[in-house]
Amino acid sequence: MTVKYLLAYILPLVCWIGLTLGGWFTFLTPLLAFGLLPTLELFLKGNSKPIRPWKGAAAYFYDVLVYMHVPITYFLILLFCSKIAEGSFSPVEILGCTFSVGIICGSFGMNLGHELGHRSGAFDRFMANLLWLPNLYMHFGIEHNLWHHTYVATDEDPASAPEGMSIYQFWYASVLGNIKTAWKVDRRRLTRTTGGLRFNKMYLIIAVELLYLIVICSFFGVQAMLLMIAAAIIGFLLLESVNYIEHYGLRRRKLESGRYEPLGPQHSWNSDHDLGRIFLYELTRHSDHHLNAMKKYQTLDSLQGSPQLPYGYPGSILLALFPSMWKKKMAAELRRFEGS
């Protein structure tokens, strides 16, 4: 059903409940995202059938679903900062709320920013940056579109994890690598073009993110600003955790010419688990996204020839937090895929 994507709004609704009621409710969002959802996906059968989205004017419904997460995300941030400024929460409640807001910023801010950031319209790009801003990760749009999609599944891409690397090593390598790559990509732009911005866009990104933090500090205090930095770290580490599982252990061969073999469906892990697909707006159909980056989420297909994760994205991230178990499981999956 096309309206199934409305289920994704359960997560910000649960976050609002936690921020409003306090107490143990503040942990509802992480319990739902990394407790209930991965548990349900162990028992629910995946669906590889093509999506049959609405067409014509009705297709705008899919865009509205994405756009609405912008005001919702900022409303939750405003509510969180207001509660912190009022001193409404105990230390334990602050912990629960920070993780909850961080999960919202990561799962919807980073992911839907990624969806909109691949589109060509100025409005979509603007909305993408609004979603990346609370994660302090606006450079993602430069690195991801202009580097990751070119060098994915190679050692030159910091967002493609080689087999054997733990998620903790990857967080460090990818976060720093993505920042360095974003600077490099925009320096190249400046050497190749004579129009447009004549300074590195990274300076503008840093200025906007600093202004965002200054505004929070001015209106809600230092504690609120520091907690939003903590929420941003949770948000972008959630993104990097997704990056980790999406290409783990998959590598493109380097040809005699020095170039890499053409990108194919075999270079991205897919997951057809329904709940992960809904809550992440089809990000889990990742092979089709890499082959057709401009396709909107509701048109992505499950491609033959792509390796399938044994669990959905939430469950895979949980398993990855235990490196020895993850490496053992994925070594078997990689050998099975290579032998198929």
Polypeptide structure, described:
With 340 residues, the protein is mainly alpha-helical. It has one domain (2-339). The protein is built from 14 helices and no strands.
Key words describing this protein structure:
single chain, 340 residues, mainly alpha, 14 helices
Task: Annotate the secondary structure layout.
Blueprint: H1 10-21, H2 28-41, H3 60-67, H4 69-86, H5 91-117, H6 122-132, H7 140-151, H8 167-192, H9 201-220, H10 222-247, H11 274-279, H12 286-291, H13 313-320, H14 323-339
In brief:
The chain is mainly alpha-helical and 340 residues long.
Show unreliable segments. Answer: none
| Beta-strand fraction estimate | under 5%
SSE pattern: HHHHHHHHHHHHHH
The end-to-end distance, rounded to whole angstroms, is: 32 Å
Give the oligomeric state. single chain
Count of the domains: 1
Radius of gyration: 20 Å
